[in-house]
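Incident log, support desk, overnight shift.

02:14 A customer reports that sequence design results differ from what the structure should imply. Their input is reproduced verbatim below. On-call engineer (initials T.W.) acknowledged and began investigating.
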């Protein structure tokens, strides 16, 4: 453990006497691409300050504001410190303290009874990336539920559509070292508010800008990243594929393409060339709302500048056509041969930190390999309609009452008296308020864990720097203990945390990862992947890999083998907006101070964000008789939500934006924005379609 003693005066205006403090290295566990290195100060058993680790090779001592408030989270007055049993109505939030022994006895006896009477499929785990550590998320927990024979959870809520869209073009999840983007000379940030969600990519782009790079942001909302960029191009939600095809049309028409690259390294250029005839700038302008002249100029600048780079954000994939949007954008660098150049190409996510999930999760333990799988975005309908019914829900590393779509169905399902719900968390979240048992969880500062990034190429270890607070248990300890109490004797349930870290590194199919030495990682705590031997572009092209502009395999999934624009299944675009002015497209991107619902109960951050608001264009506000600061109700057939209005031209007419996922108590009527979002599946991978949401709007009474 890297720990040093040092003497430092107190901060602020208090001229306190000198005292000895302990300084530790750690890692941010939040669901964020940056996976920052942290420098943590502990005094008298409490974390008093969190800053960035200046020795981290890519995050370099810089962290976001929310992470600086980790001390408020770890030592929060409302943190759960012991197991509790429900005493009031579901959702009421009334509990009594019990012992761990009582909690474990009740969980295991319930499980055994349910398995005997209804089968193990009546039990459903629900988790995502509330903690990105691989020891405490994706190992012992998966093994336990696999061995139990519980219903499997298909974890699709965030990035699966975009990942599959990228793979449909590139054949891989991604292989660009983001550190190379300092060499880029034309940068497009497409559908990502990276100032709030990928700040260290912003730092790299700033280096590129100092060397002459131009930065263009394409998005539906003039957010912080749009204001930071050199140019902002605004379009209607779900029309991004049309814009990309319009740019390709101009590139082909004006001979700004790399014919040699297309011949040598792609499949299907002639078919795509024919498709592009259907997307002239005039038509694309009507669909997207982007002026024809802007489309032409954007394509010319992109086509004439090398290296050019596209950072593809997460927002794009949350549409009905999200996978195809990402696939289409990913074709652009091939037309101009940008994969040839260091600093060229596109990046959706880092696909090189691929672990051996079978080794870690052990699906071979399943008593029945054909056990049913439930898509996590269908939680509401699963709790209400599954046959046979779900009778026990075990939630950890997630807060589905706030984050899952079709919230009204989710809350009705959680309120079922015949559903036994266990929640393992640090706080009494919106979901925990519906639980029958609530179990206290450790923070990541109390765990040994290993972290990978879905952006940069470093693997990190973080050791515990605090003892477990109160009676909190880690996920690792909880599921290992439950396995023993259920009588599971397989040796994998004896694996220590260090055993699991070794297994994370042990993937012979991924030499980038398996060449990391365990002892070196434990000593240095930060080690970069081995990206030699043609692991990244442009070298990968020399191995015979081809970029699939035409992908025949998509036809089997009912998709077009060529890039295409298909309108979202509900709502409007630039062509239809004037025909249906009372239907609005609702977008709910992340706000700056929370990450999904994490950190949403930190008072200082709540004060900075203010309250849940709804951004509306001045023309729409005037037409509806709505003024700044008034309350409005937005609604559709799924539910309703009441919000405070912010009139702004940061959105287009016909588009509404509500930033962030607040805890339900923050909304005037206790109903969150996900009351409105559909639980349909995206075109690829069964992903969520949060942003393909149409609503009506009226003044709140």
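02:41 Re-run completed on a clean worker. Output:
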């Amino acid at each position: 453990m890297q720990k040093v003693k040092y003497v430092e005066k107190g901060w602020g205006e208090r001229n306190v006497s000198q005292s000895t403090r302990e300084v530790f290295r750690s890692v941010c566990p939040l669901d964020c691409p940056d996976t920052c290195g942290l420098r943590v100060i502990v005094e008298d058993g409490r974390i008093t300050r969190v800053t960035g680790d200046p020795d981290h090779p890519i995050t370099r001592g810089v962290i976001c504001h929310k992470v600086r408030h980790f001390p408020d989270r770890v030592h929060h007055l409302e943190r759960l410190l012991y197991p509790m049993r429900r005493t009031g109505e579901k959702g009421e939030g009334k509990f009594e303290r019990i012992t761990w022994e009582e909690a474990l006895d009740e969980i295991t006896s319930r499980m055994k009874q349910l398995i005997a009477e209804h089968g193990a499929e009546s039990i459903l785990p629900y988790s995502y990336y509330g903690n990105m550590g691989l020891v405490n998320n994706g190992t012992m927990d998966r093994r336990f539920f696999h061995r139990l024979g519980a219903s499997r959870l298909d974890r699709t809520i965030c990035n699966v559509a975009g990942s599959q869209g990228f793979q449909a073009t590139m054949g891989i999840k991604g292989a660009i070292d983001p550190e190379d983007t300092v060499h880029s000379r034309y940068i497009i940030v497409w559908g990502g508010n990276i100032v709030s969600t990928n700040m260290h990519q912003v730092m790299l782009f700033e280096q590129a800008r100092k060397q002459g790079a131009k930065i263009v942001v394409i998005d539906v909302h003039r957010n912080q990243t749009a204001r930071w960029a050199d140019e902002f191009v605004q379009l209607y939600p779900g029309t991004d594929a049309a814009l990309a095809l319009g740019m390709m049309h101009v590139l082909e028409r004006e001979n700004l393409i790399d014919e040699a690259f297309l011949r040598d390294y792609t499949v299907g250029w002639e078919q795509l060339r024919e498709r592009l005839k259907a997307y002239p700038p005039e038509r694309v302008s009507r669909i997207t709302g982007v002026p024809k002249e802007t489309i032409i100029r954007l394509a010319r600048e992109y086509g004439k500048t090398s290296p050019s780079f596209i950072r593809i954000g997460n927002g794009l994939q949350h549409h009905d056509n999200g996978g195809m949007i990402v696939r289409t954008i990913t074709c652009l660098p091939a037309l101009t041969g940008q994969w040839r150049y260091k600093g060229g190409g596109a990046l959706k996510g880092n696909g090189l930190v691929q672990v051996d999930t079978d080794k870690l999760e052990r699906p071979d333990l399943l008593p029945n390999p054909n056990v049913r799988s439930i898509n996590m975005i269908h939680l509401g309908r699963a709790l209400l309609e599954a046959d046979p019914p779900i009778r026990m829900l075990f939630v950890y590393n997630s807060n589905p009452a706030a984050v899952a779509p079709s919230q009204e169905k989710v809350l009705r399902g959680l309120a079922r008296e015949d559903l036994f719900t266990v929640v393992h968390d640090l706080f009494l979240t919106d979901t925990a308020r519906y639980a029958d048992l609530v179990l206290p969880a450790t923070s990541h500062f109390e765990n040994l864990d290993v972290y990978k990034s879905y952006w940069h190429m470093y693997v990190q270890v973080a050791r515990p720097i605090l003892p477990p607070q109160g009676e909190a248990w880690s996920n690792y300890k909880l599921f290992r203990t439950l396995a023993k109490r259920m009588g599971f004797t397989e040796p994998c349930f004896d694996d220590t945390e260090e055993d699991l870290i070794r297994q994370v590194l042990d993937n012979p199919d991924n030499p980038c990862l398996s060449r990391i030495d365990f002892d070196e990682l434990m000593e240095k705590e930060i080690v970069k992947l081995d990206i030699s031997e043609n692991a990244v572009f442009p070298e990968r092209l020399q191995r015979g890999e081809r970029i699939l502009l035409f992908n025949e395999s998509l036809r089997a999934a009912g998709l077009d083998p060529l890039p295409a624009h298909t309108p979202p299944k509900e709502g409007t675009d630039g062509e239809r907006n004037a025909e249906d002015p009372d239907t609005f497209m609702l977008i709910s991107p992340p706000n700056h101070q929370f990450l999904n619902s994490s950190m949403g109960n930190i008072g200082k951050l709540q004060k900075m964000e203010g309250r849940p608001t709804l951004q509306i264009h001045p023309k729409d506000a005037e037409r509806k008789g709505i003024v700044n600061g008034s309350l409005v109700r937005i609604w559709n057939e799924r539910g309703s939500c009441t919000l405070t209005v912010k009139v702004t031209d940061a959105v287009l007419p016909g588009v509404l934006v509500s930033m962030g996922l607040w805890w339900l108590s923050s909304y005037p009527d206790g109903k969150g924005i996900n009351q409105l979002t559909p639980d349909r599946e995206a075109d690829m991978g069964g992903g969520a379609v949060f942003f393909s949401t149409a609503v009506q709007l009226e003044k709140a009474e």
